[in-house]
Amino acid sequence: MSAVTAIKEEEIRPDDLFSKFMDLSANDAKNFFDQEKFVDVACPACGSATTTSNGFEKFGFCYAHCDRCGSIYASPRPSPEELLRYYAESASQRFWSEKILKQTEKKRKQSIILPALERVDNIIKNIVGKTPQRILDVGAANGTFLSEWKSRHLEAQLIAIEPGAKAAQKCRDQGMSVFEGFVEDEAEKGEAQGDLVTCFEVLEHVQNPERFTKALCEVTAPGGVAIISCLGVDGFDIQLLWEKSRSIMPPYHLNFLSKQGMEIIFTKAGFNKVNILTPGRLDVQIVQKSIERGISLELSRFEKLLLSRGEETLQAFQKFLANNALSSHVWIVCYKN
Ligand SMILES: [Zn+2]
Question: How far is the CA of 115 from the centre of ligand 1 (A)?
Answer without folding.
Answer: 31
